[in-house]
Write a structure and sequence with these properties.
2 domains, alpha/beta, 197 residues, Conserved hypothetical protein from pyrococcus furiosus pfu- 392566-001, ParB domain
């Protein structure tokens, strides 16, 4: 028995659950706990490395564990290529993670894998910065800026700027719109924190 065959026997699936998965629920049959040793990074991953984000991610995973699955496809070699989650792969490696919760697309083409990667990575919604600032404020009722800076993708000045956003008099800005055509295309900027809108 090869190493890959031995590792594949360790994959944990939903097959043992005594529930018939129908319709949309059939998707859950593709979730698996895959041994980390069976995973390989996608050499075509287009996301840029960022040391600060990697450290934030490491601290997130240490604090709350893996609560988001990664996406994989099975290669002809028997290994599973990470379609979405390559930066998490790096952190899992650093942490010595043994099993990774994965959604397995099975044997799909290179183009299909890349399409899934772009669809799942780039289908993001715009942020309402005022609501985000209010959310950060609510978090700081229980956790200090020092604590949340470790796990969030914001620097200390950025976290402090969220507080400035809430203290700023937005009504004054909103009630005095610019009239000149030259000014209409320019972004507005908070004089206290530098936030642009």
């Amino acid at each position: 028995m090869t190493k890959i065959e031995d590792l594949k026997k360790k994959i944990i699936t939903f097959k043992g659950i005594n529930v018939e998965l129908k319709g949309d629920l059939k998707l859950f049959a593709n979730y698996k706990l895959i041994p980390f040793e069976l995973l390989v990074k996608a050499d075509w991953n287009y996301k840029i490395d960022n040391d600060k984000r990697k450290e934030d991610l490491l601290q997130n995973l240490k604090r709350i564990g893996q609560v988001e699955n990664i996406l994989v496809r099975e290669l002809d070699t028997g290994y599973y290529e990470v379609i979405n989650g390559n930066h998490r792969y790096d952190v899992f490696a650093d942490m010595g993670t043994q099993f990774v919760l994965s959604y397995d697309f099975g044997h799909i083409s290179d183009a299909q894998a890349k399409r899934v990667a772009v669809e799942t990575n780039e289908t993001k919604f715009e942020v309402d910065n005022i609501k985000l600032a209010e959310t950060i404020k609510d978090i700081t009722l229980e956790f200090s800026f020092d604590e949340i800076e470790i796990t969030m993708p914001f620097t200390m000045p950025e976290l402090e700027n969220f507080g400035e956003l809430l203290e700023f008099n937005w009504d004054e800005i909103n009630n005095n719109p610019t009239d000149s055509e030259e000014e209409k295309g320019k972004k507005n900027k908070c004089p206290k924190c530098g936030f642009e809108w």
